[in-house]
Amino acid sequence: MKLNKYIVIALILISVKSFSQSSSSLPFGKKSASDTTNGYEKMIGDGFIGFGFVLGGDNTGALINYGQSREFIVGVGIGRRFVKWNGIGIDVYYKSTDYYLTQDSTKILPDKSLHKDEKISFDNIGGLVYDRFYIGTFFIDGGFYYDWTFYTKHITWDDVTGSNAGTIKVIEKQLDFTNASNYGLTFRGGKSTGVSFYFNYRLSKLFKGASSSYIAYPELPVYVLGIILGLH
User: Fold this and answer.
1) The whole model's pTM is what?
2) Which of 71, 224, 202 is nearest to 144 (CA)?
């Protein structure tokens, strides 16, 4: 799907532009003198690229391979400080999360078939509203995120015998048993410019509930812990 590639490229270009600016700059335009009164900058600018790993308890039938299941995120944002040590802001981002499924006899997601390798992937456009606290050159913030899942995939890899190809890859797109959105809590902390960490806790369900049309699939893990390179 070409759309998600264009979105990633656009957000990366904006983020890279923000990285090239000094810590007193925003990704958007210049600040006036009134933005730097009282010895601190009133405006908050975010530009970041991050990578994380899925964590959390397993549910029988939807076990995952930890370490292999991962997430990529890139985004930008803007906000405002009310005092030197605190402010609020809004980020927008692209996020892709891959859950690699364990291949054993308990698997029911999305079926009981076993493969050499298998994953379910979610591509999201999201927004985050956060409250940020500054401690010297460090920051800590917490907020609420909301993701629109615009593209989903189920991918399997299998060995092939008696063929010129060693492996066959099958891709199923736009899965009908997944929810169109999800939401949760985000916590971040680290250096205002450079490396920081993020932790996501998903509060919503990825899959639709049981009905005449859908199976009640067990949920995938709800935590992601990752590292971010950015300007905050």
Assistant:
1) 0.84
2) 202
